[in-house]
Amino acid sequence: MAAILAPLGRLLDSDLFYSFRRSPVTVVSALVALVCLVGAGLAPWLAPHDPFDLASLNLIDAFKPPAWMAEGDATYPLGTDDQGRDLLSAIMYGARISLLVGICAVLFSTLLGVGIGLAAGYLGGTVDGLLMRIADIQLTFPSILIALLVDGVVRAALPQEVHEHIALFVVIFAIGISAWPQFARTVRSSTLVERNKEYVLAARVIGLSRPHIMLTHVLPNVLGPVLVIATLNLGNAIISEATLSFLGVGVPPTQPSLGTLIRIGNDFLGSGEWWITIFPGAALVAMVLSVNLLGDWLRDALNPKLR
Amino acid sequence: MAAFILSRILQAIPVMLVVAFISFAMFTYVGDPVAIMLGQDFTEAQRAALVSSLGLDQPFFVQFARFIGQAVQGEFGLSYRLSRPVAELIAERAPATLELAFCAAGIALVVGVAMGVYTGLYRNSWLSRALLTFSLVGVSLPPFLIGILLILIFSVWLGWLPSFGRGEVVQLGWWSTGFLTWSGLKALVLPSITLGLFQLTLIMRLVRAEMLEVLRTDYIKFARARGLSNRAVHFGHALKNTLVPVITIAGLQLGGIIAFAIVTETVFQWPGMGLLFIQSVSVADIPVMAAYLLLIALVFVSINLAVDLLYYAVDPRLRVGRGRGH
């Protein structure tokens, strides 16, 4: 028991936790993020209905407004969509897909960006020039455009049946590849500083290989800012995924994310069924905003200059 | 000056070549144009004849060079989906997107600078605080949600403005404009606000930060000491010196406006190039995608070039520094 409590006590005592507790905005956004995470992650167990169970769907229940409105039904707290699916459950399942895609895309761009940045910074010369030139070119285009193009090209290149199976991976790949230059630039600049330090020289003197020095000695020392960029990028990745799905080129309709739900709801906006699109939208905003605020806090808390 | 422009143009060429190469690779390796054009029944001789008439038996670089030659002349073949020349399709859709982007950029620039100057000068007034809070919303809401909210409020609930399309357009030669009819103007309002809101908040925050910075400098104090009017100090001295970064960011954001037009056009079913592109992506209409890709790249490269030149024209320090350097 003490073994578990000791690190917890240290955490509660730390500067990081102090700055966390001091900022009410951060605490609130952490709570919202936690609710989103739990609601999305445990959707199959927590959701009141299973939106994918076709047998339980009943068209009579379609277009029910939220429970607090006159025609609402208490079994459907946030109302139902055009097929009679419970909106709350659909949002929970949708947030699961959105989060999954977002997190995987950020992991992918982190791996790619850190690898490229490390190689560019440590190897220098032509490799550096070439890689950073590519990053510069990519940065002149908005990342959503890159993601759209990558998604479009892959979609065109693969036969329809194959694409449907791996659509989720295609979206992750497209969003991931659109965000790597930011990671690469940061890691490169800190690698340039680290590589001339004495411990790297010492490692070279004792004859360690370049990949070994890069991965076990330089890498741990350049990872600090990466965490912050990754958190801030998670919000962007979730928005990118929602945008792609809203445009109808993101995740497949069989696995609807929040963006897909918003797109479906958008068709019924004109006829007054606003809840079908507004609630998934609100969930998206809550998720993205809380992640971004946490990222902002993390950036400030880890920056020694601001303490 | 000439050397500066030349070096910028030389830097832009590889970018265009890379993009052209991607477009070309899409044409060549994605899908099989020969199979699409031949249809079901064909003989081997017909196939060979078509392959050689399309130049597909030529070496790779010859094909690439030919592709570039055709692209420069705006020749991208037929759209798979609509069976019409791509150049024609894009020319038809371009006015809608350009008018939308123009309005969005105009709103962002005029309102953004005005709000930025106001919040910079009166930083503690309640209106400034309200505007800053509002700008946070503008930054954190994804553009398509802003569009949906505007539609819900102003079209569905209030019924003031149309929720889709361009309204009535007037043909001026090949250019179709929505500026000349009342319904066309009404249709422009919501999409341009949606498209321009992000840029508006960005410009506002930038102008505000720069104004706060500049108002603290000695030459502003000196201008006040000379007894110049508030107006002359604020606009003639302060605002003028904030414009260099504003031009850069605003110029670069213009490209963002063209790119995000894809999203806005989808929300409002605006018949522009972005909607055409999205419809092409979902059915893998390669010729349209390739042409749009090249066009967007050209727009971005030109904007970057123009911003660099403008920067050079606005900031005399750059010219002096370079003059000494060489």
TrEMBL record, chain A:
PROSITE patterns: ABC_TM1. Keywords: Cell membrane, Membrane, Transmembrane, Transmembrane helix, Transport. This is ABC transporter permease. Pfam families: BPD_transp_1, OppC_N. The chain crosses the membrane at residues 25-47, 97-123, 130-150, 162-180, 218-239, 274-298. Belongs to the binding-protein-dependent transport system permease family. Its main location: membrane. InterPro entries: BP-dependent_transpt_permease, MetI-like, MetI-like_sf, OppC_N. It is found in: Cell membrane. The keyword Transport applies. Residues 95-295 form the ABC transmembrane type-1 domain. It is a multi-pass membrane protein.
Automatic annotation (TrEMBL), chain B:
This is ABC transporter permease. It is a multi-pass membrane protein. Keywords: Cell membrane, Membrane, Transmembrane, Transmembrane helix, Transport. Pfam families: BPD_transp_1, BPD_transp_1_N. The chain crosses the membrane at residues 12-30, 98-118, 130-160, 180-203, 243-270, 290-314. It is found in: Cell membrane. InterPro entries: BPD_transp_1_N, MetI-like, MetI-like_sf. It comes from Siccirubricoccus soli. The lineage of its organism: Bacteria, Pseudomonadati, Pseudomonadota, Alphaproteobacteria, Acetobacterales. The keyword Cell membrane applies. Residues 94-311 form the ABC transmembrane type-1 domain. The keyword Lyase does not apply. Belongs to the binding-protein-dependent transport system permease family.
